[in-house]
Design brief:
With about 425 residues, this protein is α/β, with parallel strands linked by helices. About 40% of the residues lie in helices and about 10% in strands.
């Protein structure tokens, strides 16, 4: 059967597999869910629904730059929060009182699956009458305060391309079930038509990647992409292009949701050009099969996380209070941020074992974008220290990673003077 054709027991628009994905996540979260093509798309829809134009949004400076551009695309002003240096979670007590009073919303990051202090943030947002949004892209399976991450905010967004391994798909979950249909319509209005070429590329991508790995052609593939102009970032952060960004930001308050997203598309689409395309049945089916295996994957991740957290790189000496928000079960489960003295040397040590390190967020967003596009953190030291020393390791490669770091003599980071992690 060709990709996109209807078959027995299915419908051409993929509504049945989409509904199954929504029902599966609803059973995990206890919330109404809307399938979206990506986490970033779901967050954009939530921000546009809840936040007034020109509003100010507290967020973490150690985060994917794409999320920063999503906030700008929504016509909002990012406000960078002080961070706990042990795990890059928002340090609630270090946010100045005047900053709280100016906010329209808070967005958590739950970096690598380490939860932000959602109970405290929920209480602050309730007192201020503003929404809390949980970016749970890294945090399927993580818990905080006795609930799953994603069950605290007015809305939460998940990436099904991470733990599920489908390289596509997301979920927008909402606390108020009465808002589910309105948000589903908002998302539907923002989607772009399904493209057969995109579905074909998605279908063959795993086999192409396997061939590149099997033939050890990774370096040649990267060189070819650079030659063809397909590499959108040479460094950890994508090029800011400040003059173009200034024009896009200036236009955002005067544009409707679709056209504002169009204006910021060169930044928001990076690393995922299908982020707002309607999904075909083949794509939805692959995502569903991955989601069916999620609990087995998370169990394997927990074993690797336990090993990595037992190493000398898990936290500097003297930081016994770090990671105190743990539920007793091992987390984070997406990546474990080991804290090393020389991150670049550690990356090279892992590369020699064929372990690729991704999801690095250095420098912090306020240093990257500057005061022209964001309110800098009033206490940037914790974010800078974490961004410089964090080595995110896939728990599924834990044993090989530990062996590589030991063999290379990678040293743990030294606790910085004056930066003490909060208990959360």
């Amino acid at each position: 059967m060709a990709i996109g054709e209807a078959g027995p027991g299915s419908v051409r628009d993929g509504s049945r597999p989409r509904k199954r994905l929504e029902e599966t996540m609803r059973s995990r979260l206890g919330r109404e869910c809307v399938y979206v093509p990506s986490c970033r798309f779901g967050l954009y829809a939530a921000l546009r629904h809840w936040c007034p134009p020109g509003g100010r949004v507290l967020m973490s400076p150690v985060n994917d730059d794409v999320i920063f551009f999503v906030v700008l695309a929504a016509g909002l002003r990012p406000v960078q929060a002080p961070l706990n240096p042990s795990d890059a979670s928002i340090d609630i007590d270090a946010v100045p009182g005047e900053a709280w009073g100016s906010l329209s919303a808070v967005v958590t990051t739950n970096l690598y699956g380490n939860p932000d202090p959602a109970p405290g943030l929920r209480a602050r947002c309730d007192a201020l009458g503003i929404p809390l949004f949980e970016d749970a892209a890294h945090a399927i399976g993580s818990e905080v305060g006795g609930r799953p991450v994603g069950a605290w905010g007015d809305a939460s967004v998940f990436s099904l391309s991470k733990h599920v391994g489908a390289k596509a798909g997301g979920i927008l979950a909402v606390a108020d079930p009465g808002l589910r249909d309105a948000l589903a319509k908002t998302c539907d209005d923002l989607l772009l038509p399904r493209r057969t070429t995109a579905e074909l590329a998605y279908a063959v991508r795993p086999y192409a990647e396997a061939a590149v790995r099997g033939l050890r052609l990774r370096r040649a593939a990267w060189a070819a992409m650079r030659l063809l102009g397909l590499m959108e970032r040479e460094e950890i952060r994508m090029p800011l292009r400040p003059e173009e960004l200034t024009r896009a930001v200036a236009s955002a308050p005067d544009l409707d949701a679709r056209h504002s997203l169009d204006a910021h598309d060169p930044w928001v689409r990076v690393d995922m050009h299908d982020y707002r395309l309607r999904a075909g049945r083949f794509r939805l089916g692959r995502i569903g099969r991955g989601l069916d295996r999620l609990d087995d994957v998370l169990a394997d991740c927990r074993a690797g996380t336990e090993l990595l957290l037992s190493t000398r790189w898990a936290k500097p000496a003297g930081w016994e209070g770090a990671r105190s928000r743990s539920t007793g079960a091992a987390q984070p489960l997406f990546r474990v941020p080991l804290l090393v003295a020389d991150r670049d040397a550690a990356v090279r040590a892992l590369a020699r074992r064929g372990i690729v390190v991704g999801y690095l967020y250095d420098p912090p967003l306020d240093d990257y974008a500057g005061a022209a596009f964001t309110d800098p953190s009033p206490s940037p030291e914790g974010a800078r220290w974490f961004a410089r020393h964090a080595l995110p390791v896939d728990p599924l490669r834990a044993r090989a990673a530990v062996a590589a770091l030991e063999e290379s003599g990678v040293r743990p980071a030294e606790a910085p003077e004056g930066l003490v992690p909060t208990g959360g």
